[in-house]
Specification:
This protein has 414 residues and is mostly helical. Helices cover 76% and strands 6% of the residues. It has three domains: 2-47; 73-155, Type II secretion system (T2SS), domain F (Receptor-associated Protein); 156-414, Receptor-associated Protein. It has helices at residues 25-34, 49-63, 73-88, 93-101, 108-121, 126-130, 139-151, 154-211, 217-252, 254-266, 270-291, 296-306, 310-324, 330-335, 341-353, 356-413; strands spanning 2-10, 15-22, 37-45. A hairpin with a 4-residue loop joins strand 1 and strand 2 (15-22).
Length: 414
């Protein structure tokens, strides 16, 4: 089979180009017509669509003009659901992708869909085509599709992919939702305190100086802080931004990530929330892979890559090495002291009964319910704490401003 580069027109009259695989020029013309295009010129080439397109993208990326196409999680969910529904309705994977690509979407979703369609037309399997976009399609996604192709149940595999990512998106939304309100309160409170320090406190400074009053120590400290912010506020802001950038880079380094993720698990309330979400994700991902025919060791390797917390991911990696030595899964996980006893005990039951996938389903439901409980607890406790914190700052400023006035009033009464 040879590769033919073509230039053509769509049914709407727009110019298009690409590469198809065929035995001869006539076969290439038929392939182009199947794509819904009218060929204008066809020339034989030695490169596939992705080889040609990938080189162009790498060149543009290095120059900084174009980023490699990548779907957001919400876009990935929509793409997966639409593809699953089309394939389940009886369409071939190539025709389903052609239907999605016909929308002429110029976003990352459209570019990825078009490339996947062209690769499928050339005879590439869907799983191999998905591997061309590792930033969008994780190893979990690719392996679930590959298992469905091998078993001949690709529609079921795509449905499982959709269900899995919908549950992951839902769990992530719960955690993010628990943090939204406290962050809003903190930001608004910080702006209120900053506004008082910059605009209100300096007015009191002028009044107190004109009165010649001796200021109490808390008020003097407040005035000094306000004066410092007025003079050096810009430098303080630059320093804070610099610290944030340095912290982000450090937390993404190998050593920094280990320390920061370990610290996250020790933070009250938030640590339990992060850990519970990781346990639910572990059980859901591991169970989905086993249910779709992926063997235990590759499944554990995939799960390790998808866990967001490095501390928990490393313990899964250590357990995987012990499983290689012939041990069961539950015992190495129990020895790590990171996974709760309930989780490892339920996995041990699954190993004894030979229904690990079923046990992992129960574990997923258990920790999904626990995650809901942790989110409610987190928001219930954190919301009043944030309000009290902001009230303490604002009230402290107000008291410091009132102290000199109260002292002057007491002297006048004498």
């Amino acid at each position: 089979m040879a590769h033919f580069k073509y230039i053509g027109r769509t049914r709407q009259g727009e110019r298009t180009e690409g590469v198809v695989e065929a035995g001869d020029r006539a076969g290439a013309a038929r392939q182009i017509e199947l794509l819904g295009h009218v060929p204008i010129s066809i020339t034989e080439t030695t490169k596939t669509v992705m080889q040609s397109d990938g080189k162009k993208k790498r060149f543009n990326f290095e120059l900084g003009f174009q980023r490699k196409a990548r779907m957001k999680l919400q876009d990935l969910l929509l793409f997966s659901r639409e593809l699953s529904d089309l394939v389940a309705s009886g369409m071939t994977i190539g025709r389903a992708l052609h239907t999605l690509a016909a929308r002429k979407d110029t976003s990352a979703v459209g570019r990825i869909t078009t490339t996947l369609r062209d690769e499928i037309v050339q005879g590439t399997s869907l799983s191999d085509a998905l591997e061309l976009f590792p930033e969008t399609f994780s190893s979990l996604y690719v392996n679930l599709v590959r298992a469905g192709e091998a078993s001949g149940h690709l529609p079921d595999a795509l449905e499982n992919v959709c269900l899995h990512y919908e549950r992951v998106h839902e769990a992530r939304g719960k955690v993010i939702g628990a943090l939204v309100y406290p962050i809003i309160v903190l930001v608004i409170g910080s702006l209120a305190v900053l506004g008082m320090m910059i605009f209100i406190v300096p007015q009191f400074v002028e009044n107190f100086n004109s009165m010649g009053a001796t200021l109490p120590k808390p008020t003097a400290a407040l005035m000094a802080t306000s004066s410092f912010l007025m003079k050096y506020g810009v430098f303080v802001l630059i320093a804070l931004i610099g610290l944030i950038i340095v912290f982000r880079r450090w937390s993404r380094s190998e050593s920094g990530k280990v320390i920061w993720h370990r610290t996250q698990l020790r933070i009250p309330l938030m640590g339990k929330l992060i850990a519970t979400n990781a346990y639910a994700h572990f059980a859901r991902t591991f169970g989905t892979l086993l249910q779709n025919g992926v063997s235990i060791l590759p499944a554990m390797g995939i799960v390790q890559k998808t866990i967001q917390n490095v501390t928990i991911a490393n313990e899964i990696g250590k357990a995987r090495e012990r499983v290689t030595d012939g041990a069961t899964i539950s015992k190495p996980l129990a020895q790590s002291k990171v996974f709760p006893r309930l989780l490892t005990d339920m996995m041990a039951v699954g190993e004894e009964t030979g229904d690990m996938a079923g046990a992992l389903k129960h574990i997923t439901r258990r920790y999904d319910a626990e995650l809901d409980k942790q989110v409610r607890t987190f928001t219930t406790v954190l919301e009043p704490l944030m309000i009290l914190l902001v009230a303490a700052f604002v009230g402290g400023i107000a008291i410091c401003l009132l102290l000199p006035i109260l002292e002057l009033t007491s002297h006048l009464n004498i």
